[in-house]
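[step 3/7] inverse_fold.run input=structure_tokens len=93
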């Protein structure tokens, strides 16, 4: 998974550390390990819910995040449109 910080214009590769793995195991929400290890599930559980404190009920999520199928388009959008500050690019699996 890739993370783009629009302010610094740096691109980072992300991977789960041991604490992240433990968090996912504790927050299964009735889903399988395979489900919880999808990149989108990691972003939703760790970034959206844990770090941003937003509900995963779908009511707020699409108000604060856009889902774009093309990484190049997502990066262009983040770098050119305020107030967007970050982008995640999910690896095709």
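[step 3/7] decode complete -> sequence:
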């Amino acid at each position: 998974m890739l993370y783009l910080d629009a302010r610094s214009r740096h691109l980072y590769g992300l991977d789960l550390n041991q604490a992240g793995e433990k968090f996912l195991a504790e927050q299964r929400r009735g889903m399988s390990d395979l489900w919880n290890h999808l990149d989108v599930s990691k972003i939703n559980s760790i970034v959206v819910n844990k770090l941003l404190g937003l509900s995963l009920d779908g009511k707020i999520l699409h108000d604060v995040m856009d889902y774009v199928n093309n990484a190049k388009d997502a990066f262009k959008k983040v770098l050119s449109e305020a107030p967007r500050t970050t982008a995640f690019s999910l690896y095709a699996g």
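[step 4/7] annotate
The helical segments are 18-26, 33-36, 39-51, 61-64, 71-80.
DSSP finds five helices and three strands in the chain.
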